[in-house]
Amino acid sequence: MGSNTTKETKPITSLTISQKSPNRKSEITRSHDLKNPGRFDHISSEANSILKIKPFGGLSLQVNQLLNPNFSITHKLSMGSKLELPGYTISSSYSAGNYLLQGNLNQMGLLQGGFFKKIFPGLLLTTNFQIAPKIKDSQENEAQTTVNPNNSLSFLSGALEYFGKNSTSEIELASDPYLKVSYLRNIRPDALIGFQYINSKGRYDPKRKSKHSHSVKVVGKISKPKEALSLILSKSPSFFCTQYVRKITPRIGFASEFVYSLVENQFQEKSLTSIALKYAMRQSSFQTRVSSSGDLTSSLEIKTSKSTAKFSTLINYPKEFYSIGFGLKMGADL
User: Locations of Basic and acidic residues compositional bias (predicted)?
Assistant: First the structure.
């Protein structure tokens, strides 16, 4: 609850464009053609599903209510955490046909929402908004909120994504002001490349305690049936990142990540190495990650027919810090 960053939503993960083959020979050739690479932000989804364990502390309760096949409401309450302030969030979602509406409101008065519309096969329209009260600097430090120099968190954004036969293009504009352009393309059945340009003149970055005017990313990825390697080179912030993920068995996955900062920065380490394992069973899963910063993070999730229990631990030996959390999710699995 300490961060008011807009929650990422994934209403549509892939779009398929079908083409009829004129003859059998062409059909055989097309079976080896390149596929759509998906979204730019999902290039590391396989590795992140193992590496990105989000720790939480204290107690967390989430109740999902499916009021009808198209409309749902979620209540989330958290307390007793060393990582974030206690809080309450109510979220709602409505879907029908080719569009989706989502929104959430927390106890600080932060209202967020999104509209997603599949205009026609291959083209997706996304609109997001955020309305927030002004927050004093003392409250910012206490709640660990993301506040720009004007103490204004409200914005309106719109994005268009086009999913072509072997490429994905995206453009996003926001009122803060903010501009994002990205392009991702498959160059071989097992390889893709892409780039992303961001002009965030008015958007505040809490990690660097400053505003980024321009940011450029170049990415590449090689995928095999049981493993994948991705490379990311970024300018402002300047860093190099490589991720490797491998499916050891149908139930065990391994992932590693190496991040090297190309410039000196007092807010982040020069380099960071992480390795993680995930063991997935029929009704439970266990994840653990260790990093060169000293963090040891683990998560255990147990599912039943009507609820999901989650245990989380974060231990940092050099800093003598630890956090333990227990979460319970009840109701429909949205």
Answer: 24-37
